Amino acid sequence: MLKSHALGFGYLALASLLADEARGGSSRGVLSGKPHFMPRAKRVVFLFMKGGPSHVDTFDYKPRLQRDHGKDLPFAKPRVQFSKTEKLLKSPWPFHPAGASGVPVSELFPHVARHADDICFLNSVHGTNSAHGGACLKLHTGSDNFVRPSLGSWVTYGLGTENRDLPAFITICPTLAHGGVNNWGSSFLPAHCQGTPLGVASQPATAAKLRYASNPVFSKGLQRRQLDLLENMNREHLGDLGSSPLLEGRITSYELAFRMQQAVPEAQDLSGETALTRKLYGLDEKITSDFGRQCLLARRFLERGVRFVQVTHSDGKVQWDQHADLLKGHNKNAKEVDLPIAGLLTDLKTRGLLDDTLVIWGGEFGRTPTAQSKNGRDHNPEGFTVWMAGAGVRGGMRYGATDEYGYYATENKLSVHDLHATILHLLGMDHERLTYRHAGRNFRLTDVEGEVARAIFS
Q1: DSSP H or E run through 245
Q2: Cβ-contact 125, 377 below 8 angstroms
Q3: CB-based contact 300:292 (threshold 8 Å)
Q4: What percentage of the chain reaches a pLDDT higher than 70?
């Protein structure tokens, strides 16, 4: 019985190998760095607002919420809630029409408001998890309960990099909480697809340096000889194994680390930036200098061929998570990021990079329109706002909507899978074809879901 069934196992193995060959590559990848169709975007910068900014206080204006302040919510709250909330709480900030399009934007973001005609506000995004950890994982990996490759890793796997001396995916000052390294990890994708962290959220951006980017002991020539010897040994070992994605990834990482010793310090050296540019990003103001530095670094990495750059705003303490004292917390956070974000948009547009760079802004969820602790808001994954700019996205528009108070996504609803499918489409990739075979089946970022929001394309 074992002998006859063993032939069946061999058949399955052969079928798998032939399937990989038919797709045009090994199990390591099927795209060889080429998009499926003409892309609108060549690169991405993701401005991640850790903690969950309130959509009804920033980019989703709700007149009825203002009118019915202090009243009961006239419909049922979600069956599963993070915490208990009470009466409706109006926004402390007025909204004003912005740009020629007249899109309402909160007074929290006066500088971003000047770019409203370049921004598409996705007001109907919704998730599946009301806790920071699960929601962060969902936004970054498409799954809130399994370790899966991150969005940046899938983009790297599909498209590769345009600069062999820098990583394809860099995350600047990422948070180590609520998903941690899994938010930029590659999971079962090849090791070279994972994000390279630059600093951490709990330290200032001035301390965001790559460790061991220089070697004060050995010369470049000696390092090169050491790497050549190590590669020959690893290649010989790889020949014995036949195939080992982990070992191949390690060989690649050694070579990249060697080349990065010159490329990264140059990219991080801001001394050549003009006084006007420093002012544009707010580097000379205490309140904006930290996030402004991150945004300026992002632009420098993007223009040097880095495919995916994430910039995280998180002070390691309060973040955007205002369960109480919404006024103080959101005022502080918005002042730290508003000018630098506007500066980044201006700089990208001036340099002609915004045409093919996709800028994404958002947090892991929104906030409730009902009050918590009298002057705060609780977590709300049922409906929130993410916005996009550049790369063929229609500016000056609001796509989708939440209900009249801002609790639930109701019109043109966008799940996180839909959001990911749309991002991949802008990069020229079909989310249903961007797959990786692991543990006996094909995996993809959007699992078995995802619809592209084509209406937002210009």
Answers
A1: helix 245-268
A2: no
A3: no
A4: 92
User: Position of tokens 């089946």?
Assistant: 441
Query: Do the beta carbons of residue 333 and residue 313 sit within 8 Å?
Result: yes
Q: What is the dihedral of CA 272, 273, 275, 281, to 10 degrees?
A: -150
- Tell me 26's DSSP state: -
350 vs 118: CA distance, rounded Å: 13
Record the tokens describing residue 197, joined without a space.
Answer: 């962290």
Cα gap 261→218, rounded to integer Å:
13
- Cα-Cα-Cα-Cα dihedral sign, residues 243, 249, 251, 252: positive
Beta strands in 77-118 (DSSP E): 95-98, 103-106
pLDDT score of 212? 67
Could you give the residue ranges of the DSSP H alpha helices within 91-186? 110-113, 132-141, 151-159
Tokens of 94: 């007025």
Each residue's pLDDT tens digit, 73-119: 999 999 989 999 999 999 999 999 999 999 999 999 999 999 999 99
Is the distance from CB of 292 to CB of 282 less than 8 angstroms?
yes
Q: Rounded to whole angstroms, how far apart are CA atoms 350 and 129?
A: 39
**Amino acid found at 168:** A
